[in-house]
Design a protein that fits this description.
single chain; 35% helix; UDP-N-acetylmuramoyl-L-alanine:D-glutamate ligase
């Protein structure tokens, strides 16, 4: 209760949810003694794969007995997920106390919710100067609150695609502009660039960071991986090859994220051994990223059928999801809810051979599109229906043996689903 009260106050400090600027966060962090200058950080930018890459890094670093602090956004179920220190999520009481400290230092000055959360993270993280900080950038990066570090260990550039276009002028809604926003201010240290969806995007990244003096490591040029039929995958870079067990997370896109994490840790001199990598990738926690729901209220409704939830919400995420679905020899049923500012038809066009689509409302999200409106927009699907809640949606699907259900379209929907389950 105390935590929620503090959160409610912090959310009212600025009239806008997002107001791209570094002035307010710098001013507050200066009052706090510039804690961001006292930490060892790996920054993670991009459109897709940031969270999964962080979780792969975290799992491997734990095997190396290195302590981590982690800052991610948005949260799926509880705000505590965004604040990991010494390998543990902060509990309600400690998080509320942290927020109150930052609230007092801010002294009621206008600041966005994300900015004050970021200042809180930096302040707490500075208490653990030897820990590795895994910091996920928010919107774009150039004017993101996390972009006030003066130095870091590395910057990881995950897959970049068109998303959040409503924050850009109409004439600047291009992949070139998005790449510029995400990579033009990366620090001079090490830059590891993940596999990109197109050659054009990779070349655009290379062009944008050309004058950056960092040590640069690119997928395909400097590291790569391949999948072997005998249930292992092979990673290779200038340090040699690694025969690795298949990880405990699903989807080809997860192998791309894991390969990027491995490339980062082998580039940095952190004492990570090959066996740490081999063990770590089989223990990854990945919330709402092609996560199978194996028990709970919603699983009971699905009976013996596999039920997945995935928070992807842009076309590149849909493409990666469909790639996994196409590898399965069964009927696939999609339940979808989305935010209003997304390109709904562009997202759904990547899904092929879908047995049914059910649109639903996202609870507690005023900025979401209604399930009825979404159904009307997705008129290229003949087998589409609307239900106003997830229980009715699952119960309405006519399932045959081995069929699967995938709930997708929004991280906010994924959070509601996991809480309800």
């Amino acid at each position: 209760m105390k935590l929620q009260k503090v959160v409610n106050r912090l959310q009212k400090l600025h009239p806008k949810e997002i107001d791209l600027s570094l002035d307010r966060i710098k001013k507050l962090c200066k009052k706090l003694g510039n804690p961001q200058d006292k930490i060892k950080a790996i920054s993670i930018v991009g459109t897709n794969g940031k969270y999964s890459t962080i979780q792969a890094l975290f799992s491997i670093l734990k095997e190396t007995n290195l302590k981590c602090n982690i800052y991610t956004s948005p949260h799926i179920k509880e705000i505590n997920e965004r604040f990991v220190f010494n390998n543990q999520e902060l509990n309600d009481e400690d998080l509320a106390n942290l927020f109150e400290q930052i609230e007092e230092a801010n002294n009621n000055e206008p600041i966005t919710f994300f900015e004050i959360l970021t200042a809180a993270y930096f302040h707490k993280a500075s208490n653990y100067p030897n820990n590795i900080n895994l910091i996920e950038a928010g919107l774009f990066h150039r004017f993101d609150a996390t972009n006030i570090l003066k130095e870091n260990l590395a910057s990881i550039t995950c897959s970049i695609s068109k998303d959040h276009l409503d924050w850009l002028p109409k004439d600047q809604q291009t992949i070139e502009k998005i790449v510029f926003e995400k990579t033009s201010t990366l620090l001079n240290s090490n830059i590891i660039v993940a596999k990109q969806s197109t050659k054009e995007t990779m070349e655009c990244i290379k062009k944008t960071i050309f004058q950056n003096k960092s040590n640069k490591v690119f997928f395909n040029d400097d590291f790569s991986y391949s999948v072997n039929e005998n249930d292992f995958f092979y990673y290779e870079d200038k340090f040699g090859g690694l025969k690795l067990p298949m990880p405990n997370v699903l989807g080809q896109f997860q192998l791309e994220n894991i390969a990027t994490a491995i490339a980062t840790l082998r580039t940095l001199d952190l004492g990570v051994k090959d066996e740490d990598i081999q063990k770590g990738i089989t223990k990854i926690t990945s919330l709402a990223r092609l996560q199978e729901i194996k028990s709970g209220k919603l699983k009971k409704l699905a009976n013996n059928h596999k039920l997945f939830v995935d928070g992807s919400h842009n076309p590149l995420g849909a493409k990666a999801l469909n790639q996994y679905l196409q590898s399965l020899n069964c009927n696939k049923h999609i339940i979808i809810g989305m935010m209003a500012n997304k390109d709904h038809n562009e997202y759904m066009k990547y899904f092929k051979d879908i047995s049914s689509v059910t649109t639903i409302d996202i609870p507690n999200q005023p900025n979401s599109i209604s399930g009825k409106e979404l159904m009307n927009k997705l008129n290229s699907f003949n087998n589409i229906q609307y239900k106003d809640n997830i229980n009715e949606a699952i119960k309405s699907i006519s399932l045959k043996e081995n069929d699967i259900i995938l709930i997708t379209g929004s991280l906010y929907l994924a959070g509601e689903i996991l809480k309800l389950n």
